[in-house]
Design goal:
Length: about 475
């Protein structure tokens, strides 16, 4: 009834019992009258408003009312809610309704144990059974989405992944991804054949991965983890190795920038265990190498760098989404130069970064900013303060909405490395410290007011 006649859950349950609004109101009043302290009074008009909510013509049912309705209908209170209801209900009401309770008594059977008077017999019974199967097959074949609409949803997700790498503000892409995710979630509340359901879960999982990645970039790791866990659930429900791998890559990225470096290594290795098309295997090997380098484990980092070459050799097919969820040569070089820098190979890092930056190409501004920071850090390590300032100039000129949390973290590292170097007392060091501090104060997490975030810690972590 919900799918075929587009009924809300509470209305569908009422019609399934064959009751009118007045029938339900009478039963509520009769049932709640025997419960002192938990009375719920209703009339036909109020029951109708409960069914229409959260539409503007409806009225929000109290948790007690939903519990009474559930008992009348022989279901759980949660069965009376759909996605729109859960979005509109206060958290306190959801907490009450989601708590485990004793199972509701089963509803009265629709058919009596013995065949009622008028039940078809003989050939008529055989014909009736065939008609019932045909009716169910018609329902099972119905869907609330077609193949063209499914392709469009996937295309929209790919577009968002590419838009994020361009100059569009991160929060704009985040808002669009959220709207598209809600649309896919709403479709999953309806009915479609199993293969279409699987495809919807894949799109939903990739959208949650995008939301997780953007949250991490905005300095909100807790929220990123929530989206990541939901993406993992979608991957399991879809049984999709590509989504599993990309989800684990996203969660590894969140863990690294949240300071959970060993968790990042574990997640990256788990992701690499799946055979998936496209470039995700390369990115996962890069992430593992980066995490080992953050720990100062040069040997393990070198081994992970070797696995990058293996992953490239084994690469097949194309990325499902691309854009943010892909690893082109420039992004790979950004990781490898960063690893070389951290394990003490500053000259190698500088040469490879300079070569990559000199190659004309369309590249993500966040990745380019990190590559320039690697070059600046290598200049500092090699005692070239002027080279560091020159490399950082385009980064320091980024508009506030593009000053992502990982870039801010790495800029603060440059400032600290200058403070520990031989140039610490020079004019260049002072200028660099002031520029980085001012930059971090206007970084994207502050710009979009994500509390609490890394920017404050970044600024406090700068050398005095």
């Amino acid at each position: 009834m919900r799918v075929r006649f587009r009924m809300r859950p509470r209305e569908a349950w009422r019609h399934a019992h064959g009751w009118t609004l007045q029938d339900v109101a009478d039963r509520i009043n009769e049932l709640s009258g025997s419960r002192r302290g938990a009375e719920v009074a209703a009339d036909a008009s109020l029951v109708g408003k409960w069914e229409r909510w959260p539409a503007t013509t409806g009225r929000k049912p109290a948790p007690q009312a939903l519990v009474v309705l559930a008992e009348l209908y022989g279901c759980a209170a949660a069965d009376l809610l759909d996605y729109e209801d859960r979005k509109a209900l206060p958290r306190a009401d959801l907490h009450l309704l989601d708590r485990p309770t004793a199972p509701a008594p089963p509803p009265p059977p629709v058919l009596a144990p013995s065949a009622p008077v008028g039940e078809p017999q003989g050939a008529a019974l055989v014909e009736a059974a065939a008609g019932e199967s045909a009716h169910w097959a018609s329902w099972a074949e119905s869907t609330n989405i077609g193949p063209i609409a499914l392709d469009q949803l996937a295309a929209d997700a790919r577009d968002l992944a590419h838009r994020y790498l361009a100059a569009e503000p991160p929060l704009t892409v985040f808002a669009a991804a959220r709207v598209l995710r809600d649309r896919v979630f709403g479709l999953l509340e309806g009915h479609q054949p199993p293969q279409q359901t699987r495809e919807l879960y894949v799109v939903a999982g990739y959208l949650c991965s995008l939301l997780a990645w953007i949250c991490s970039d905005l300095g909100a790791p807790r929220q990123a983890d929530t989206h990541g866990r939901t993406a993992t659930l979608c991957a399991e429900l879809a049984d999709h190795n590509g989504l599993r791998a990309w989800t684990l890559s996203t969660r590894a990225k969140t863990a690294l920038w949240d300071g959970r470096t060993r968790d990042a290594i574990t997640l990256a290795r788990r992701g690499a265990s799946y055979t998936a098309p496209g470039t995700v295997g390369v990115l996962l090997a890069c992430q593992e190498a980066d995490a080992w380098a953050h720990l100062g484990a040069a040997g393990e980092a070198q081994q992970a760098l070797a696995r990058i070459a293996d992953a490239r050799a084994a690469q097949h097919g194309t990325d499902d989404i691309g854009g943010l969820l892909s690893c082109d040569d420039f992004r790979r070089t950004n990781y490898t130069t960063g690893v070389q820098l951290r394990i003490g190979n500053a000259a190698t890092a500088l040469n490879e970064a300079a070569e990559a930056l000199a190659t004309p190409a369309h590249r993500a501004y966040g990745t380019e900013a990190q590559m320039r920071i690697t070059a600046a850090s290598a200049h500092v390590a090699l005692g070239h303060p002027e080279g560091a300032l020159e490399a950082l100039a385009p980064v320091l000129a980024l508009p506030p909405e593009q000053r992502l949390a990982p870039v801010a973290t790495r800029l603060a590292e440059v400032a600290r490395s200058v403070a520990r170097s031989a140039m610490a007392d020079g004019r260049t060091a002072g200028h660099l410290h002031a520029a980085v501090e001012h930059w971090c104060l206007q970084a994207a997490p502050r710009y979009v007011a994500v509390p609490p975030g890394a920017p404050g810690a970044l600024v406090r972590g700068l050398p005095d």
